[in-house]
Specification:
The chain is mainly β. It has 4 helices and 21 strands. A hairpin with a 7-residue loop joins β2 and β3.
Length: about 375
């Protein structure tokens, strides 16, 4: 009882007039800000191996491919993939309004089905209410690292490649934008790859476009992307990625009308899960290379529920003067069998050539 009564009295005396209690931290602060800054600066200049993009090592004839790399995408003042395609000669962009409306590229007057889209080496097939074409405005540019547009007779092949961090230092990005009529866009991403071979990336892009005045026609879309990869050796690696779009587009009506629809609405969710295993013999892009692909795409909304499962393999053999490639894909529906082969030759002459053939088997 006496001990408990004396304790508070002694403590109050120390606070009132005695010296402050000694520092009870057992371990001193060993953080060196200068050393940390030097380490981060050094990591920003150390390259680490990454999975090569599928198909970028192909040998193509001159002037047949237009490339938008990461810097070009950031500085081209484009909001969507459709804006990039509008810069391709021969493309006219059907747009039903301003930002947020459907964008359908028309190549040489052949309609929207004249454009094929590939996401990280896998065919990005149309799902949902429109089963014939893809709306490129639904692809957020913030998650893309590279866009290649290959022009072949009567057709465009658009290769979309997601971001990849080739430096040991992590990369982060936060973007907030606002514009006329209260349009707003929010972006965030984080990429990291270590020397052990493991890497991850995640990104979110939200676009909100209100309607024009009292007319309906608002649009918003939230896109998310997550990827994990592992490269135990520079010549071998694997990755798993998930991409989701949630468009909510109100129908756009003619001014003063309640029935004249200029652009139909769209509301739903699309998820794409993709897995990849890669092997190559050489690091300089020559020699054989093999990619095994696995994909699943699901659409839900507008009274339409569809899914497509895909399994594929891509084989390539590149040499300085020729390139040979074979692609085989099995799907659960629509086109169960899809086989393609290509050969390109560039001899030591002022002439080069490429040929491609395909075989497809369709349902019904």
């Amino acid at each position: 009882m006496a001990f408990c009564g004396l304790g508070p009295v002694s403590g109050m005396a120390q606070v009132a007039g005695g010296p402050p209690p000694p520092d009870t931290l057992a371990v001193a602060d060993t953080t060196d800000p200068t050393a940390t800054l030097i380490e981060v600066s050094r990591a920003a200049h150390i390259s680490v191996p990454v999975l090569p993009d599928v198909g970028t090592e192909r040998l193509l004839t001159p002037l047949s491919r237009i490339v938008f790399d990461r810097d070009s995408i950031d500085w081209t003042n484009a909001e969507t993939v459709g804006d990039l395609l509008a810069r391709v000669p021969g493309v006219y962009l059907w747009r039903g309004g301003w930002v947020g409306r459907a964008e359908l590229p028309n190549f040489f007057g052949r309609g929207t089905s004249s454009v094929q889209y590939w996401l990280d080496g896998f065919p990005f097939l149309p799902l949902g209410p429109d089963s014939l074409s893809i709306d490129p405005s639904l692809f957020p540019l913030s998650i893309l690292d590279r866009v290649e547009v290959e022009r072949i007779p009567g057709e465009l092949r658009v290769q979309l490649f997601t971001r990849r961090q080739a430096l040991q230092a992590p990369r982060s990005r936060i973007g907030i934008a606002a514009g006329d009529r209260e349009i707003a866009r929010y972006q965030g991403s984080l990429e990291r790859r270590g020397q052990s071979g493991f890497g991850f990336a995640l990104a979110v892009d939200h676009l909100n476009v209100p309607g024009l005045g009292s007319n309906p026609g608002a649009y918003q879309n939230t896109a998310a992307w997550v990827q994990a990869s592992y490269l135990p050796r520079p010549t071998f690696g694997m990755s798993l990625s998930w991409h989701r779009n949630s468009p909510d587009r109100e129908p756009l009506l003619a001014i003063g009308s309640t029935t004249d629809t200029i652009d139909p609405g769209l509301k739903g969710r699309r998820s794409d899960l993709q897995g990849r295993v890669h092997w190559r013999k050489e690091l300089n892009g020559l020699g054989p290379r093999v990619d095994l692909l696995l994909g699943r795409s699901v659409w839900t909304g507008e009274g339409v529920d569809r899914e497509i499962n895909q399994v594929g393999a891509v084989f390539g053999w590149r040499q300085p003067r020729y390139d040979l490639g074979v692609t085989g894909i099995w799907r659960s529906t629509r086109t169960p069998v899809d086989l393609r082969a290509n050969l390109a030759v560039a001899p030591d002459l002022p002439i080069s050539g490429a040929i491609e053939g395909g075989y497809q088997r369709h349902d019904d």
